[in-house]
Amino acid sequence: MSDPITVFLADDQELVRSGFRMLIDAEDDMEVVGEGVDGADTVRQIATLRPDVVLMDIRMPGMDGVEATKQVVALDNGTKVLVLTTFDLDEYVFAALKAGASGFLLKDTRPADLLSAIRAVAAGDSVVAPSATRRLLDHVAPTLPDHVGEPDERLDVLTDREREVLVEVAKGATNTEIATNLFMAEGTVKTHIGRLLAKLHCRDRVGLVLFAYETGLAPA
Predict the structure, then answer these.
(1) How would you classify residue 103: left for phi > 0, otherwise alpha for psi between -120 and 50, otherwise beta?
(2) 135-175 pLDDT per residue, tens
(3) Mean pLDDT of 27-46
(4) Do 36 and 8 meet the contact criterion of CB atoms below 8 Å apart?
(5) What is the pLDDT of residue 133?
(6) How much is the average pLDDT of 29-49?
(7) What is the DSSP string of 25-91?
(8) Residue in 29, 30, 12, 104 with CA at minimum distance from that of residue 21
(9) Distances in whole angstroms, Cα of residue 103 to Cα of each of 8, 20, 37, 218
């Protein structure tokens, strides 16, 4: 049996951490290895514990989740950051994703979806909740660079088909949905996404979403 996925909980509310701990520790393939009450406490512990995944609250006292995400990513010790948010704090999530978070979830996400997201992030995938992506980016649109909506030369390296796939990714569509929408095989979609990641120098699917909105390819 493989080692369990190690998870760190970063949230200033003890009740929230307790709820997540009960849920996660009930799973055979994952365990909570630590808890942080603010960003500085979280970064300090993660440097030693090196968990696979940290569930990062955005709004915490002192060092917030955005700065903590930057510092955790800078540790370069393999820990992935999964941001937790509520819609009234969405403007902070964009910054956290730019800082290197592997995705975001809403705090009212169903337990099964949270567990699936942890497993996906631990496996090296990214989690951009399809149902929330559009609303998130609507909220953070005012924080996007001024050139959004104007032609961006970074798009010149893409084929027309790759641009179409990128737009679908920005909408939060899954590979299966992209295949259906663009009338192509799912394997072909995966190939296009791999090329997009390489051409655009994006770390993961989250990076593609942000790139599409930054360059104005996806409507803000």
Answers:
(1) left
(2) 555 655 555 555 544 567 778 899 999 999 998 888 777 78
(3) 94
(4) yes
(5) 58
(6) 94
(7) HTSTTEEEEEEESSHHHHHHHHHHH--SEEEEES--SSS-HHHHHHHHHHH-SS-EEEEEE-GGGHH
(8) 30
(9) 15, 17, 21, 18
